[in-house]
Amino acid sequence: MIPKAPRGFRDVLPTEAAWRMSIREAINERFKLWGYLPVETPAVELLDVLELGGSLTDMPFRFFDSDNNLLVLRPDVTLPVARMTALRMNKRENWPLRLCYAQHVFTENDSTYGQDRQAMQAGVEFIGEGGTVADAEVLCLLFESLQATGLTDFTVALGTVNVLNALVAEASDDEAWRAQVFKAFHESDRVAIERLAQDGRAKPVYAKVVRELARIRGGEEAIEACRELVAPLGCEDGLDELQRTYELVDANVEGGKLMVDFSIISSFNYYTGMVFKAFAPEVPAALASGGRYDHTLESFGVSAPAAGFAIVFEQLMQALEAQDVRPPHIGPEQIVFDEDPKVMFAKARALREQGKRVVLGGER
Amino acid sequence: MADRNLKIAIPKGSLYADTVALLGEAGLDITGLADPGRHLIISNPGVDFIIVRPTDAPVFTTYGGADCGICGKDTLVEAELDTAELVDLKYGYCRFVVAEPEAFAGRADEAYERLGVLRVATKYPNITRSFYEKKGIQADIVKMHGNIELAPIVGMADRIVDITATGRTLRENHLQVVEEVLGSTARFIANKAALRTDPRVVELAEKLEELTRDNELTMS
What we know:
The structure holds two protein chains of two kinds.
Chain A: H1 14-33, E1 37-38, E2 44-46, H2 47-50, E3 62-64, E4 70-73, H3 78-88, E5 97-105, E6 119-127, H4 132-148, E7 155-160, H5 161-171, H6 175-186, H7 190-198, H8 204-213, E8 217-218, H9 221-230, H10 239-252, E9 257-261, E10 274-279, E11 288-292, H11 296-299, E12 306-312, H12 313-322, E13 334-336, H13 341-353, E14 358-360
Parallel strand pairs in A: 1-5, 7-9, 13-14
Antiparallel strand pairs in A: 2-4, 3-4, 5-6, 6-12, 7-10, 8-9, 10-11, 11-12
Chain B: E1 6-11, H1 16-25, E2 41-44, E3 47-52, H2 57-62, E4 68-72, H3 73-79, E5 84-88, E6 94-101, H4 107-115, E7 117-122, H5 125-135, E8 138-143, H6 150-153, E9 159-164, H7 168-172, E10 175-184, E11 186-190, H8 192-197, H9 199-212
Parallel strand pairs in B: 1-3, 1-4, 7-8, 7-9
Antiparallel strand pairs in B: 2-3, 4-11, 5-11, 6-9, 6-10
């Protein structure tokens, strides 16, 4: 038998593992500087409980334990953190909560270089505070976290689910049509959006605007363009907030690029306001994604606004490599040997105290 | 991003000529594309054309080998990849059909009634599987790489799912169409990161859409 890892998993060897660790530390340092405190959640969750918070797809690992519970290897960290908060950190006098984590998630993805079923996510959840200042805080932290890893060329595409939600709700009572529109937006399938806008199942004025919305993209002026488009239909939901968030972030980040993009729709259906994804030109999938989810905690029994993001290490590493960021040197700097082991240990210890990486040499 | 050429995957074969003509109309420098010889990549000012097998165009685009590309809806559906589909270019029309030998008409239905399973030969297992799943029919899919029409003739499959533009090949092999699966035309596709980080992709999509807007042909 070949001693291999299961499909979609891989071992990480020292050079890369050290790099991943240093990236984790760099990101965690930013989280810490913004006052975010680390949490850990279990690797497995009860499927029924998790699904209270949102419908999940792409869960490759579901199984029964010996208690006959249907468990799932967590496909996401936001829902477990929301569950944890509702259960154990629900004292409002201690809110808002700024929580962060670095954990593996288990999903079924195409092509993340052999790691398509396990990915490391580092992220934050800002719970108990709504509004544009909180939105901007989360976004600014994303910019700084990405930059802390050495990444320079990236774009954060920012949108809101409110406009599309309002338009689609007004456009048609046909549930199937609505679901197809969201799916087409999520898949960036403009041909399907085009066809859905013309298939007669939705009111033409609204359908036409849904179609236009998918194309609005740009700087701050894109928000204005969107407003002009949807104002006559009374579907400006979320645009003022988006504008304020944009201005605040734009004024407070250096480097990277902030774009408005109304075609951004996440695969998770729990978002209620801003949504965003970060891209690097060299990597086909998003490096990070997030948004505001004000109703999720409610489904776990405590109502609270919340927003957050997760950075996916596998994608980030690909971008860093393409942008010529190289792993830090971690090998030993010095080999120490002495015939007398006592002397050898003492010499090495003295050097280590100066911060040198030292290995013991000689024959054993 | 504009410091490097835009990379476009273009399909060899039946879509090639129309694709090159359209990209030329869109203002790209198509020098050398008329007769690429054995070249796999043709670099002109501002643009690299990557000449690929039609079924590989979505692969190149999804995995970042190209920023954008052109391929048939058929290959896009079959590839099941995470690519942005931006414009229906309305040429290269063909359709997927289920067909069976004229001489054995009815035999497949009879076999299905008896066994509850249809055996279907195809080059497109994903499209075929999802088609029969939607109909609630159990299909045993036999994946082949060419000359699909042989399968029912020699009794290896009840029916075939294949692509046809005019129906001529089917007729020549005495096959008749049983039902339609889907219609297909050429699409402009893009890598999802390129779509969001490289404005040239969006500009090209808009130009192509303008150029093809008034074309009559649409997907069935």
